[in-house]
Amino acid sequence: MEKNQEKLIRSGREWRLARDHSITIRGNKWYDHGSNSGGGLAISGLQHIYHISFTEAVDMLLNSEGISFETEEQADSKRRSSSFCLPKANQTNKRVFAYLTKIRCISPDIVNFFFRAGLLYESCEASKKGNWNYYNAVFVGVDKNGKAKHAHKIGLSYKGIKYRGNAENSDPRYSFHLYGEERLYVFEGPIDMLSYISLCPPESLEKYCYVSLCGVHFQAIMQMIQDCKIEDVILCLDHDEAGMVASKKITAELQQKGLNIRREMSINKDWNEDLKDMFGRSVVPAEDISII
Fold first, then answer.
1. Kind plus residue range of the DSSP H or E element containing 60
2. Which domain covers residue 171, as residue numbers?
3. Using CB atoms within 10 A of its CB, is residue 183 exposed (0-12), middle (13-18) or buried (19+)?
4. Is the terminal CB of the chain with fewer CB neighbours within 10 Å at N or C?
5. What is the end-to-end Cα distance of the chain in Å, rounded?
6. Do 254 and 156 reside in the same domain of the chain?
7. Rounded to the nearest 10 degrees, how much is the dihedral formed by the CA atoms of 210, 214, 217, 219?
8. Within a domain: residue 74?
């Protein structure tokens, strides 16, 4: 981005785009807090910032000496040298429950299931100056022994700014998921995962494996395949260009490993939009494109 005369401003462990402070970059991930979009890698970030095609973004990335991104090995090394701690829990989960059931239309039974499993809760965290608290929905990822390794946070009240991000030192291999049997369903984010489960018969909840990539971490898919001995993978990523590009890449990598891959697409942009559609809410339509 420096080659394209973009100025980045340090903001804690992240960098903010000088001309648009809502866009943050951390390692090799980006997020636009203004439009609640992002979490992807360099190519989708360049597409979003410069409004260019996938091919143009690839060319820009390959030809730019000023763009630097962490490798998975570098990120893993940093993570191993630091400890992971879950965000401080609030005394109640009322805000999370209201947000997921009333705004996102997710089944109360599904929300309560994840509360009881210890995989979802409401955090209460002090601001940097300590003069006020902010609250997040925290989606917890655990290993096979039930030890928390990852936490994805969605802001519930952050001075009007919608925050999404992973807790410090989260292990990308264990992003928000649910162990099961038979086959693995893969989603971009926790909201889509819970929305899809809400749309399925009740017995599907503990029958199958589900994983939310929380930034499209390929490592999380491989960890679930290893832990659950799964051979069938269903990709349920967003029905838009970014989701299609990611699905194509993931499919190619998993097929090389001899796995059975298929894609299940939402009618609208994502599974939460489909769920809201059932309740007569306004929805974001799917993008009518095809990635060959």
1. helix 54-63
2. 94-278
3. middle
4. C
5. 28
6. yes
7. -50
8. no
CATH of the domain at 151: 3.40.1360.10
229 burial type by CB count under 10 A (0-12 exposed, 13-18 middle, 19+ buried): exposed
Amino acid in position 66: G
User: Six-digit token pair at 243?
Assistant: 């989701």
Q: State the pLDDT at residue 65.
A: 38
Judge if 155 and 24 occupy the same domain: no
Model pLDDT for residues 102-114, shown as the tens digit of each residue: 999 999 999 999 9
User: How many helices and strands in the chain, by DSSP H and E?
Assistant: 9, 14
Longest dimension (CA), the chain: 54
**Which among 4, 37, 7 has a CA at the least distance from the CA of 22?**
37
For 217, half-sphere exposure in the C-beta direction (CA atoms, 13 angstrom radius) is 27
- Check if the beta carbon of residue 39 is closer than 8 Å to that of residue 33: no
Sheet of 177-178, strand order: 177-178, 209-212, 184-187, 232-235, 260-263
Q: Which two tokens stand for residue 56?
A: 């143009």
Angle between helices 271-278 and 190-199 (to 10 degrees): 50
What domain count does the chain have?
2
Nearest C-alpha neighbor of 61 from the set 40, 74, 47, 75 = 47
Round to whole Å and give the CA distance between 42 and 80: 24
Q: How confident is the model at residue 17 (pLDDT cuts 50, 70, 90)?
A: low
Instruction: Count CB atoms within 10 A of the CB of residue 214.
Output: 27
Token look-up 């080659």 returns 3
Strand, helix or coil at 228?
A: helix
